[in-house]
Design a protein that fits this description.
- The protein has 240 residues and is mainly beta.
- It is built from 3 helices and 14 strands.
- The strands form 4 sheets. Strands 8-7-2-1-11-12 form a 6-stranded mixed beta sheet. It has a 4-stranded antiparallel beta sheet with strand order 5-4-9-10, with no helix packed on it. A two-stranded antiparallel sheet has the order 3-6.
- The radius of gyration is 21 Å and the shape is globular.
């Protein structure tokens, strides 16, 4: 009878978590950074501590053990086996603030939480394999609101299906509490990017390198295809 119970329990677990779902490598944008609080003071309704929210943007559950968040100052590693379900959210914050943020939803405290600059910073999310899954280079201008940019309000992503479109896909939270850690963003909506990136300018770094500057972030896979570029007289570059 005990063996039968054990087999039934195992079968149920397999139904909940398909084989390999917690161990398969994540693809780009499977998990995204979709909310952040760079300047928690003066507090509006959130704890007086920075946080970064992750959203599982895929149909697969992932264990977050050994995932990393990197900012300009440091890199933090998640050291527990928290499973982020498909479509779910989790709050990443300093260890000291984990109990406060747990009132809003699932919260993970980490050592070496990357301090978020108020004006501008770059955040990188890495899978355990060292692959960049999502990156955000935010600016205080993304608030689109002079009062909220002064502190206490989070920045929220508008369209999670368009996670790499930069400033046009972020704005200050509309929630009266200052943000929506652990739940659906208050500004969530459809924000389709129909315009391709436009080349703004180019400049040379040395005798063999040219830098091309575009008006929005590029898909890194597409941007690395040399056949997408043509230089007058020279033709295609050797690498991109």
């Amino acid at each position: 009878m005990l063996c039968l119970k054990h087999l039934l329990l195992s079968a149920c677990l397999l139904c909940l978590y398909p084989v390999g779902s917690l161990s398969q490598p994540a693809n780009r944008f499977d998990i995204i950074i979709d909310e952040l609080l760079p300047d928690p003071s003066p507090a509006i309704g959130l704890p007086n501590s920075e946080f970064i929210e992750l959203k599982n943007n895929s149909d697969t559950a992932f264990s977050l053990r050994n995932w990393q968040l990197s900012g300009g100052s440091s890199t933090a590693t998640i050291n527990n086996d928290f499973v982020l379900e498909a479509g779910a959210y989790v709050i990443i914050c300093p260890n000291a603030a984990a109990s406060q943020y747990s009132r809003f939803g699932n919260a993970i405290g980490v050592s070496g939480f990357p301090s978020l600059n108020n004006d501008r910073d770059v955040l990188m999310l890495y899978s355990p394999e060292g692959k960049v899954i999502h990156a955000v280079e935010y600016s205080v201008n993304w608030y689109q609101n002079d009062i909220k940019s002064a502190g206490g309000w989070s920045l929220e992503m508008i369209d999670a299906h368009n996670p790499c479109s930069g400033s046009g896909n972020w704005k200050a939270s509309n929630d009266p509490g200052g943000g929506t850690p652990g739940k659906r963003n208050s500004v969530e909506g459809i924000n389709i990017d129909d315009l391709p990136p436009a080349l703004i300018r180019t400049y040379t770094v040395d005798s063999t390198t040219i830098v091309a500057v575009f008006d929005e972030p590029l898909d890194s896979n597409t941007a690395a295809v040399v056949s997408n570029y043509h230089l007058n007289i020279i033709g295609q570059p050797v690498s991109a």
